[in-house]
């Protein structure tokens, strides 16, 4: 691709969201030109970034997979390499590879109100040159993780440790932990994945946590889905499994939020089927309610098995300081280690780290109000894909992509060049868009966009409701404002005249 290009649509990110966006744009608006900008050397996003042992989905692949591309793997909780193979197969089937510009990082994007065009400054990772690309509509599909930096707390005496310290996000592929003593700091999804995987060959693995997480066993293979595929056409079997899992998750989530004490008792009772009561009480009984933070999935109970077989253990304590050969805890206990893994969480960013502006004026992410969970009040021709926090990411990504494809067709038929949702109620209550108490969310709350107190400014976190609103709801809903080229020119002219009269 040449250094300077113009497209009707630019999609940033070639992970699950970006691939979905490209598919629905092709399907709904095949006449529009588009390209996908990907900063890495391969597709996959998160699945290409994380390489730690045991990397796997934390949602079932019948909902994490695309609506338009059935998952046919035997495992519903799939390993990272299998997910990457699925994504590559999808890209090839859609003939998208030629549309992807790899090694392209978006540094900034400025919207020109007079021309209704975004101008992007893009870093070419191979030549190190800055390129200029333009588009009419910008769709950011790069997620909200900072790929360059994870959350890395500073521990007292860390430089004294003579062993190896590894962060979950930057895993050395040549790490040899066979027979070694390993301490994994953390209790989230990454920790409960890494611990049993490393425990297969390590001497012993300790999961060191400050506070427990809710952990639930889930069968890696979905027997229902595998049976259906034997008797029904693949697409029908996939659709039925997908909806079964969607509804099961929706019902369980709603019940957990409405009856938190009952949900807590149920989860703890389930864990006691796999671990001694004292271990569950001490290390797997959080103080918060279920879904205040994400509930962690243990496929086939591998973590529980590793603990029962004493290949792994859990310690709940605070770190006093590192020593030459391990970690001294606040309780006075010493954890000896050859390798320390920091599964300490992720660092969030917005817009994939790009700086956004309108007519040269910075767009401040923390001041924005999200519209239908994908656009922002007062910001034209921009969409951002963010998945569900209580269900599979791709469920929402597919709906957003489908909506954007439909929106483009609607605008083209009416010769609109600009669309922007407008918030006409300055007194609307503002809330955090992600209502989690997790540390990585709380650390980023000041710069994350907000949500309002009612639709379309409030997030539903409900796939069934979003289908009704996003797939079948009106595009011209009284909130979204559209402009044709002539209207845009007239508005810019009036604004210039007003400035001149004031001067």
From TrEMBL:
InterPro entries reported in the protein's UniProt record: FAD-binding_MO (IPR051820), FAD/NAD-bd_sf (IPR036188), Flavin_mOase-like (IPR020946)
UniProt-listed Pfam families: FMO-like, NAD_binding_8
Gene3D superfamilies reported in the protein's UniProt record: FAD/NAD(P)-binding domain
Keyword terms: FAD, Flavoprotein, Monooxygenase, Oxidoreductase
Cofactor(s) required, per the database record: FAD
Domain of life of the source: Bacteria
Sequence similarity: Belongs to the FAD-binding monooxygenase family.
Protein name as annotated: NAD(P)/FAD-dependent oxidoreductase
Organism name: Parasphingorhabdus cellanae
